[in-house]
Write a structure and sequence with these properties.
heterotrimer, A alpha/beta (162), B alpha+beta (338), C alpha/beta (324), B: 338 residues, alpha+beta, 4-stranded antiparallel β-sheet, 11 helices, 12 strands, 28% helix, C: 324 residues, alpha/beta, 5-stranded mixed β-sheet, 3-stranded antiparallel β-sheet, 12 helices, globular
């Protein structure tokens, strides 16, 4: 596992770094009841947000397994976002209370391992907040663009098989 | 041919030798010592008796991709991948490590079909052995007839004479190393060549051991021996003679790569069958297999013990369960020797 | 070995012998000496002859509670010697329903802290032939040399920041308590790491983790790793590949640490067991520190009735993400 294979500590593969047309890949895990519906509302309201965001619907933000996050980064994500109902509004009454604690701990652990704070974010977006959904996606895409491609936690073999 | 170099000149020697290909040296990483390709600024831990992880990973890396595949219509396109063909140098192996390479050779090269991945690395790698002046208390290579100060099979045998590293080229390849080092090496006499230092022997009853073990498969001593085992794979990974591997694919059905990677008989899934049956259902059978492999099966297959007395399992097992204990528990004449 | 240790081992033997020989317990988990003075290994004592080998000295680091779930499958009642950390491991296992407390007899051994063989070698300038202790000092003899050092300087890393050397849960205390300790530097390494830039931190962990053999000793010895099937072994889906790619090793270590977050008793057995010395406790302590700061001080394994921070919540909890 020589460091040289993946370039200096955590840099994205060279090909990706040099591409001026690089666009970030952002994976957004959205709670079925609030944030996913918020995304729908953004769509029906014809609000614009970048196509960099790939949405994955989960039944509740507390469905989030940190392994989902790790896997997304392994396989090319430049940023990962989890969006759920506002605390107090969970469809299952307490899911997001639990995930608030869990992802707080996990986010800080990711940062401790060297990931930039912007690359993993958690937001509360309700089903009526289509505008917020679009705004969050826009701001996160902007932040990740400013940071550049992510190589940290990325599987060095991923590029060669996609 | 004998040449020498002062300790102070070693960094320049590393730089020179590494120019032609990877130069593997024992390097300190945290509290551990591992064989790594030399890179500028790296200090060789030649004073450490034993690398924590054996140099087997130079010839038998932890993982190695050897095939790439891609679906093309109805066909699968295959391409070889990986193994470098260029020359490499492994510097600072101990006598026990050299014996272990001999044993790995029996497995990977000594029978048909020969293992091309191992063979290529092995053939391209020059072996520079370093004599042990002072084996540490866990070393018991003497029990297996190994001389810590002299390693048959090395291209170059090196030893310390004070601050001077004396090197004797024993093969044409070893002389090529001298040529590559050029003026950095001085003509030299043998100096005070180290005598064979004594190692611990732990009074191991090795004579006829493989024969005696044949009747100990169901011995209750196994039941006592295995209990403390954590079922981690540490021993099999730092052991210089363990060589089990798994073959795995990475990617999708459309394209991907096939690699082999270290595996360990200490893991429960190692023998798990597709139908759910596991012929080694508990840690007892796994521990028994590991030790019998070293002490009975390998001798039966190749006429040699698959232990070289390097002492790594005595030093690094988190619960101090090691092969000396196994030989003592099962090698004696009495049934309940602990 | 120091005098008080010899007599202590005899005292322990006498105290547990009655229970073992009377059949109150059918197995005692203790320690016996390994090949060298600086080694001990787990002892599974079933009779008086086994007990003769029982040892208690400065090298009994292995956490024995970890063996309880397995041994309770074959024994109705098991006795176990517990140091401070081992007793919290017992609480951990009881709280995780991995061990029924009533089937365990825990004999408490207040612990002066265990010594590190590597530090002995450093201090003695080679492997010592003889290690003697008296009054908080250790005399090392070997190779014609003799050195005397302060005992604290030889402690295992896992013992340096120990807060509870006395067992917090046992049925019988066999030796005199040593008293709680202070550990002002417990989070120092974590805090220093936090000061670095993200890139420096990643480079640090990449370097530390690249020597990981993936032997899983850290997981195997952990009293908080109590899943029947670890994600590492799961096939559907296969979370962790077997290649030694940096990303796979990061994934394993981050998820391992996270899976015991809030339940880690900070015994440091993971780091002690690591054959290549990866500073795993830094990951565990990072989580302990953050959870304490966010959701109130909590020491896992102290009180089996108090819920770990990630198993509960409060409606007005703070969050560590940008949005509150």
């Amino acid at each position: 596992m020589p460091a040289a294979v993946n370039g200096p500590a955590g840099q994205a593969p060279a090909g990706e770094r040099q591409t001026s047309a690089w666009e970030p890949l952002i994976v957004a895990f959205c709670c079925n009841w609030c944030s996913y519906a918020g995304g729908d509302l953004a769509g029906t309201g014809r609000m614009e947000y970048p196509a960099n965001v790939k949405v994955i619907r989960v039944p509740c933000s507390s469905r989030m397994n940190p392994l989902f996050i790790m896997r997304a980064f392994q396989r090319g994500a430049d940023g990962v976002l989890v969006a759920g109902c506002h605390p107090g509004d969970c469809h299952y009454s307490s899911g997001n209370y639990h995930v608030r604690r869990r992802l707080s701990a996990f986010k800080q652990l990711l940062e401790f391992s060297g990931l930039e704070p912007q690359r993993f974010q958690v937001h509360w977006i309700s089903s009526s907040e289509g505008d917020k959904f679009a705004a969050v996606m826009r701001s996160m895409t902007g932040e990740i663009k400013a940071l550049g491609p992510n190589g940290k936690l990325r599987d060095r073999r991923w590029q060669s098989i996609t | 041919m004998i040449k020498s170099i002062n300790k102070a000149g070693l960094d320049r020697l590393w730089e020179r030798l590494a120019a032609a290909g990877p130069l593997y040296l024992p390097v300190k990483e945290g509290p551990a010592v591992l064989f790594r390709p030399w890179a500028e600024g790296a200090a060789a831990a030649l004073d450490v008796t034993q690398a924590t992880v054996s140099p087997k990973e130079i010839f038998f890396p932890r993982d190695e991709t050897y095939l790439k595949f891609r679906r093309e219509g109805e066909k699968l396109a295959l391409a070889e991948s990986g193994t470098p063909a260029g020359p490499a140098i492994a510097f600072g192996l101990r006598s026990c490590d050299l014996r272990a390479v001999e044993l790995l050779d029996l497995v990977f090269r000594g029978q048909e079909p020969a293992d091309a991945l191992y063979g290529r690395r092995r053939e391209n790698t020059m072996l520079v052995a370093l004599a042990c002046g002072q084996p540490d208390p866990s070393c018991f290579c003497g029990a297996f007839g190994i001389n810590p100060a002299d390693a048959p099979g090395a291209d170059v045998m090196a030893w310390w004479d004070g601050d001077v590293l004396v090197m004797e080229a024993r093969t044409a390849r070893g002389e090529a190393l001298f040529a590559a080092a050029g003026e950095l090496l001085q003509e030299s006499a043998a100096g005070s060549k180290p005598l064979a230092p004594a190692t611990a022997e732990f009074g191991l009853p090795l004579e006829d051991l493989p024969e005696r073990l044949k009747s100990r498969f169901y011995d209750p001593a196994w039941d006592r021996l295995y209990r403390g085992c954590l079922a981690c794979g540490g021993c099999t990974y730092f052991c210089p003679t363990c060589h089990c591997f798994d073959v795995q694919d990475y990617g999708s059905q459309e394209r991907g790569e096939r690699f082999r990677c270290w595996d360990s008989c200490m893991f429960g899934r190692f023998t798990l069958m597709a139908g759910g049956h596991n012929p080694r259902p508990t840690q007892k059978e796994r521990v028994r297999n590991r030790f019998l492999h070293k002490l009975q099966y390998f001798p039966e297959n190749f006429g040699r013990f698959a232990c070289v007395g390097c002492g790594r399992c005595l030093r690094s097992c988190p619960v101090n369960l090691d092969i000396v204990q196994a030989i003592r528990a099962l090698g004696g004449e009495t049934v309940e020797q602990r | 070995m120091a005098e008080h240790h010899i007599s202590a081992a005899a005292k322990i033997r006498a105290a547990v012998a009655q229970d073992l020989l009377s059949g109150r317990i059918s197995l005692l988990l203790g320690w016996e000496k390994g090949h060298f003075q600086w080694q001990s290994r787990p002892l599974f004592a079933r009779d008086g002859a086994d007990l003769e080998r029982l040892a208690w000295d400065s090298f009994c680091a292995v956490n024995l509670s970890r063996y309880l779930p397995e041994e309770l499958k074959e024994n109705e009642k098991v006795g176990v010697l517990v140091k401070g950390c081992d007793s919290r491991a017992l609480n951990r296992l009881v709280q995780d329903r991995a061990v029924p407390r009533e089937r365990v007899v825990a004999y408490g051994l207040p612990c002066p802290g265990m010594l590190d063989a590597g530090r002995l070698v450093e201090a003695a300038g080679g492997w010592p032939d003889e290690i003697a202790e008296a009054n908080g000092r250790v005399v090392l003899k070997g190779g014609g040399r003799e050195s005397e050092v302060h005992r604290d300087s030889l402690l295992l890393d896992k013992c340096r920041h120990c807060l509870y050397p006395d067992p917090v849960a046992c049925d019988q205390l066999l030796l005199a308590p040593v008293g709680n300790r202070e550990a002002p530097d417990r989070f120092k390494a974590v805090e220093e790491r936090e000061q670095l830039s993200a890139g420096e931190r990643y480079a640090y962990w990449e370097k530390e983790l690249q020597r990981c053999l993936r032997c899983y000793a850290c997981r195997q010895i952990c009293p908080a790793c109590s899943c029947r099937e670890c994600f590492v072994e799961q096939e559907q889906p296969r979370w962790l590949g077997k290649a030694y790619d940096a990303s796979e090793t990061f994934l394993f270590h981050l998820i391992r640490a996270y899976h015991v977050a809030g339940r880690c008793i900070d015994c440091g057995e993971c780091e002690r067991s690591c054959p290549v010395g990866i500073p795993l406790q830094e990951l565990n302590r990072k989580l302990i520190k953050d959870l304490n700061a966010l959701y109130g001080p909590y020491e896992a394994g102290l009180d089996p009735e108090r819920e770990p921070p990630l198993l509960t919540y409060a409606p007005n909890d703070p969050a560590a993400f940008t949005e509150k």
